[in-house]
Design a protein that fits this description.
With 319 residues, this protein is mainly alpha-helical. Helix content is 76%, strand content 0%.
Length: 319
């Protein structure tokens, strides 16, 4: 375990360095003078020069990059160009909303997708299986933002059962928080349910054709016990993979959902910072999003070893 974690940490450092190179390079490629964009078109030359000196934009590019990397490894992602606050503090303020939305959407996805995928797999060739497959494919083609607007129109505007948007921290008012999160979670998880259910269906069908399943069935094992004891554990590997991918993607920012439901999350921070030319905050957000992907991939590898006894961390570490 320790050797595996050390190896993954050594791999993570070059990945994060590459992300820093890419994000820093993209900022350098912004057309025009960054100091002029920050100061505004009506600012004087002296003001623009002062901003350029304060941000270190008058130094050589390599020196700027070295200073940026040194600050990142010290936990300093810079200061926002809009309100002069530390970028790390702003990100930490926005993360709870996105993490809650992503985790709740992922839990709802798994609770609905696994049974739906099993039903679709066991109904293959029957009318029920055909109908479930049509539903799954139709759901995968439904845009999340369109569903979000539809949910607001039906449940908030027409029926008045749920609020149309907003956010309250869970520790401030748990009941209000859960009420506000129902529609965003439903919109964020609807498409994921159909996608994940299709993976579950495909994985279960593949395992059904394995020799060990035939042997267990020939020994008289009931279908229910066969499903729980043999088929599901073997079919969980691709499900864990797609769940890790979707979770990392959501933690990187569920931009449209957060914008539609007025949730002050991480994804909305990226959008707002981009429109305000706050490239320092955008840099920090992209780096944190990359770190999310690395951490989620590590958790996925650990789950592989926990679910499938044929996979060991020592073998993965030496591979």
């Amino acid at each position: 375990m320790l050797r595996f974690l050390v190896n993954r940490a050594l791999i993570t450092l070059p990945v994060l360095l590459l992300v820093m190179v890419i994000t820093f390079g993209l900022v350098q490629l912004i057309p025009g003078d960054a100091a002029r964009l920050i100061a505004g078109p009506d600012a004087s030359l002296a003001t623009v020069t002062q901003i350029r000196e304060n941000l270190g934009l008058d130094r050589p590019v390599l020196e700027q990059f070295a200073s940026y990397v040194a600050g990142v490894f010290q936990g300093d992602l810079g200061r926002s160009l809009v309100d002069n606050r530390p970028v790390l503090d702003i990100i930490v303020e926005r993360l709870p909303a996105t993490i809650q939305l992503a985790v709740m959407a992922q839990l709802v996805t798994l609770l609905l997708a696994v049974p739906a995928g099993i039903v679709a797999a066991r109904g293959t060739g029957r009318v029920g299986g055909v109908i479930s497959s049509i539903v799954l494919y139709s759901g995968a083609a439904m845009p999340s933002f369109w569903l979000a607007i539809l949910l607001i129109l039906v449940f908030a505007v027409q029926l008045g059962w749920l609020p149309a948007g907003g956010y309250v921290h869970l520790w401030e008012d748990p009941a209000r928080n859960l009420e506000l999160m129902i529609l965003p979670v439903a919109a964020a998880s609807a498409r994921l349910v159909t996608m994940t259910a299709r993976f579950v269906r495909s994985a279960v069908l593949d395992v059904y054709n394995e020799d060990f399943v035939r042997v267990a069935r020939a020994k008289g094992m009931s279908e229910r016990r066969l499903l729980v004891k043999h088929i599901l554990p073997a079919a969980l590997i691709p499900v864990i993979t797609i769940s890790g991918i979707t979770l990392a993607d959501m933690l990187g920012g569920i931009v449209l959902i957060e914008v539609v439901f007025s949730i002050p999350g991480f994804g909305r921070l990226i959008v707002d910072s981009t429109f305000r030319n706050d490239f320092v905050t955008v840099q920090g957000c992209l780096l944190v999003a990359a770190l999310f992907v690395v951490v989620v991939n590590l958790l996925v590898d650990l789950l592989y070893a926990a679910v499938d006894p044929r996979i060991t961390l020592s073998s993965k570490a030496t591979a």
